[in-house]
Amino acid sequence: MLDITSLVRVHVEALIAEQHDMGVCDAIEEIERTAIPHNITQQKAALPATSRPDLGICRARRGSSAMTAPHVPKVAGIEPALPSPTHTTDPHGAPASGDPASGTSTDAPSGAADVPEDGSALTAPDTADLSPVDRIAAVQDRLAGWISDLSTLHDLTEQLARTRTLEDALHELLRAGAFLVGARRGLVVLTPQDGLGPETTVGLGLGRAEIGHIETVPRRALSYARILDGLPEPGAGDDAEARTEIAEPDIPGEKDLDPRLREVAARLGYAASYAVPLTAGPVGRLGAAVWLYDEPAEPGDRRRHLVGLYRAHAAEHLARLLELHRSRHDARTLRNELLPRRLPRIPGVRLAVRHATGPRGGGDWYDALPLPDGALGLAVGSVTGSGPSAVAAMGRLRASLRAYAVMEGEDPVAVLSDLELLMRLTEPARSATALFAFTEPSPGAAGAPASPVPAGMGGPAPRKMVLAGAGHCPPLILGDLRAEFVETSLSAPLGMLACWEAPSVEIQPARGETVLLYSDGLLHRTGEPMDRAFARLHSAAAGVPRAGRSDPEAVADHIVRAMLPQGLDDPASEEDVVLLAAHFEE
């Protein structure tokens, strides 16, 4: 299985290079291009950037693509989880970012909402007649806003980089994007353009039922659906951004929108939307995200610029996680195909299994196969190593054991001896543990030999189980009167000695008893020494409620909960787990 831990990381330091797009260095040069100072205050303001501690950015770094410091000082910064502070207003009374007349939301990140990113507004007519000191103050004010935006972008991308799964990254993308555009709710639709999947929809502040209501709107009327289908907006011309980023600022008041869209928007309580595409790397289009406003609104140019920078990095991160998700899914599918798709139905025996694989993909396996004349073969095992090679070796080992079990299953020692010989000839560098148990058919089964009933006993004779193990953990028998490990002889794993040989053990599970076969991963995942882990397993088996001991599924669930509080799918553990329960009714 492909494990791309290094690819999950996003290089957040590269965000610092966006300072040139946001006009930081242009603002510093504008400060130095001001008129010759005439007093002490202006002389101090006109000092070079290298000696100005209040600016904190050296002009010598103009040629660098990224700052050396990982965090830019937050001159007028904000924390992503908190509302932004009120920014200093323009000296000539330009509307503040929170003014409704300006057309922007009050919770925008700090900075001037109407300042172009190239810094051209610094020489606009509204500042041409200002004194040098006032011009410097205005430039410093806007510079503080740009640095704050850059720092916010850096922090949000760092939080995105900490996500390790595709679903977590989608949730973080929605949360950060909603903050940047000033929305409260939204959803992201993941539909990779290459058609290899997965396809999913994740909501922020929207439940499954609400997302279902939105999906009832005709596809041509949904902004994110038009992005996914590549449909241009009317009057977009050749502007790519106009064709891809779709804003619907007033859904109730726009008469040209689909009536069903207005109906769903009124029912869910949103009045505007802003949709953007997610595109990255060789995958191309990954999907689309749309954020919903409670009131008529539309993000301004500065908000669009910020969310555009963020989603460019987010899309690359999603592409890496998508590749990792696909590789893990393929490995999981391969392992599932190499294991039994379903457990067989044998008269008088009910089976249950719990199986989990670590993130690297190990070689633990199990098998339950019907044998001639109504007999049953049970097996568990593990091969050394992890990853695709271990999974392939596990498949070969299981297939070989099935063949030997059909031919000579009555003698488990012969089955494991043949398996050991095959491993020494074909895979000399690998070792494995295995346990095989042959269960005789029920006395009432067709073709089964008649078992004599002991004198004084009115019920059927218990079944006989013959088992042999090669370096594997001993089975455990659970019943109303006992919970004990089977005493097996000490044996080496397969492939460790020149010739493997160990005697078999015969047990007779009574009616109503359950035999538990398991891998050592069940013990290792507890994090305790082996002797304590065995004691914990014995205590978990003995603690199964009497009402549930007749159900192998309930027995398996109880033991997993008692042994593994974090569950089978614990991402912190790399151990595989196998637990096979066989309950005897006759």
Structural topology:
Elements: H1 24-32, H2 40-45, H3 125-128, H4 132-161, H5 166-181, E1 185-190, E2 200-204, H6 208-215, H7 223-229, H8 240-244, E3 246-248, H9 259-268, E4 272-280, E5 284-293, H10 301-338, E6 349-356, E7 364-371, E8 375-383, H11 388-408, H12 412-426, E9 432-439, E10 465-470, E11 476-478, E12 483-485, E13 505-507, E14 514-518, H13 521-524, H14 530-542, H15 552-563, E15 577-584
What does it look like?
This protein has 586 residues and is an alpha+beta fold. 34% of the residues lie in helices and 16% in strands. The protein contains 15 helices and 15 strands. It has helices at residues 24-32, 40-45, 125-128, 132-161, 166-181, 208-215, 223-229, 240-244, 259-268, 301-338, 388-408, 412-426, 521-524, 530-542, 552-563, and strands spanning 185-190, 200-204, 246-248, 272-280, 284-293, 349-356, 364-371, 375-383, 432-439, 465-470, 476-478, 483-485, 505-507, 514-518, 577-584. A five-stranded antiparallel sheet has the order 2-1-5-4-3, sandwiched between helices. Strands 6-15-14-11-12 form a five-stranded antiparallel sheet, with helices on one face. Helix 10 packs parallel to helix 11 (388-408) and helix 14 packs across helix 15. The longest helix is centred in the middle third of the chain and has 38 residues, at 301-338. The protein is elongated and about 100 Å long. The model is unreliable at 1-20, 34-125, 235-242 and 450-458 (pLDDT under 50).
Name a few traits of the molecule.
single chain, 586 residues, alpha+beta, 5-stranded antiparallel β-sheet, 15 helices, 15 strands
